[in-house]
Amino acid sequence: MASWPVFGSLQGYQRGWVRPDVIAGLTVWAVLVPEALAYASIAGVPPVVGLYAAVPALVLYALAGSSRHLIVGPMSATAALSAAIITPLAGADGGRYIALSAALAICTGVVGLVAGLVRLGFLASFISEPVLKGFIVGLALTIIIGQVPKLLGVSKHDGNFFEQAWGVLSGLGDLQLRTVVMGALSLAIVLGIKRWAPMVPGSLVAVLFGICAVWLLSLDEKGVKIVGHIDSGLPHLDVPGGVSFSDYLELAGPAVGVLLIGFAEGLGAAKTYAAKAGYPIDANRELMGMGAANLGAGLASGMVVNGSLSKTAVNGGAGARTQLSGLVVALLTVLTLLFLTGLFEKLPEATLAAVVIAAVLELVDFAALRRLYRVWTQLLGTIYGHAARVDFLAAVAALLGVLVFGTLPGLLIGVGISIVLLVYRSSQPHVAALAKDGHLWVDLARHADLTARPDVVVVRVESGLFFANADYVKSRIEALCTDTTRVVVLDAETSPSIDVSAAEMLLDLRNELARRRIDLRIARSVAQFTELLDSAEAGATRIVVYPTVAEAIADLPEPSS
Description:
By secondary structure, this protein is α/β, with parallel strands linked by helices. Helix content is 60%, strand content 6%. A six-stranded mixed beta sheet has the order 4-3-5-6-7-8. The longest helix has 33 residues, at 245-277.
């Protein structure tokens, strides 16, 4: 097993990096504190739990992760997943709810550490980008509709997105005017600062505005709900009390889903800023970093955490060079827990809701769905049109899965769709009929001006050959043959792998074509392809393999014009 450096981003640290790292840490802290309080409310736990989770997450990710810029902490998507997982298990028991939330973080951490140790970083690719985009859009809309009642001062209804939306509409007659004004002004502050002064921490400005308004106008005595008492001091490091071994086993499966979504988002953010700074990202170290961060958050009475694209953007934009900036954020958050929690007790719930809504609005990326639809319509009638249609429909299905069935079923629907898409595309690869263009053999479907020889069919399978696609490939090749076909050449250069089932298929294809007086030949095969084909041919007439397509048809007379 390869050794992984501890605090790898700090190796070779230069004195000149201290100032930008400290400035970046101060900037991120101003964003993280109000957002951590807000995301804790999404998860259904007391606001201070978000701060409990942030400190160990920042330190332990810096210790184990590979990104110099990634900021780890509570996030909206995984917070919403946590709430969906814990609510049916905890019922109305608030203490058990908090304990199970911490236990879910521990389970997520253990799964991440194990996955990193056995090098499962590639699993992040098993949720396709369109499906992930649809899931995130649906999740963001669900989060927003869940915060609207706090923004308006009306009662919240349970259920899926549409049931909650109907509950909001039904309660519009009970609007609390002061709450609406506070929520609207807070939302305007956050969005306005993000639009015209993006380097200013708009969330912190809105939070301070809300607190000052409550203090000066005694709004909490006039019907505006506030966060209320927040415990000061640091949490105890221990496993959550009242959680049995069977509870951990029940949380293990959902923890995989939480890790998969959080890892995908965090890895995307890490790669984005690594590409800008010119250093590599190790997916397995990222799993270890996410695992360590969640384990630490759970043991500190926190909640699930993951890498944040928005806070990483703030970190990079403020000039961070290493994870020292994250350690500065952790230190400042500790000071907040020790001395500043009383400041946030007068925070209006409407302002907290505004911070949440503003944070997740950027995730409602309908433009990405429109791009998928536009690609589909532009490619109609081409060999890529079907794949583009499937991508768009998969994104919409994942979105509707979250809106109609809820967060956790929506996640399972998204993962299921991704796996079905993977199997579907693997089982039906593009089988290209080729024509000669100078010295090259090119796909006829992309070069309508070319014509193929009537006596020769040259095909290329743009995939490895294996049991799932063997029958499809065989039927496609047979369909390309006509009454004038005398030779079929399989250009195997784009089929780097083959299994026993596919090798047997080629022998069957050879025999069936022979009955039609058609000769099957193979050109440009790679080593593994040739070796397995030789093994399958033991005792049978060999399929002739040629170095090039040209040599495979060199013995054929040129067709008369």
